[in-house]
Amino acid sequence: MNFLDFKDNLESKLKKKFKFELWELSYTPYSFGSGVIVYRINGKFIKYIFDGKDNILELHISGKHKKYSECKFNFLKSYANLNSFEIKDVENNS
């Protein structure tokens, strides 16, 4: 699975649970397939950062009702690869 496949898989799971907006998408296929994706869900920003070189996915969440340019993200969880993320981590923190 590459980062864009992860995005599609994540969005299909999010659609079942939340109304969300895509705020940022950055994918660099020539840099180990790394990427960043940010969604706004229930007034919070949810950010996934994938390090393609080390094959690590991180989940970060902002506080409620902050402007994107001013919000600070808190690290929530790290996953061993793109296939190991769990949507319940978003459900429990949004």
TrEMBL record:
Superkingdom classification of source: Bacteria
UniProt name for this protein: Uncharacterized protein
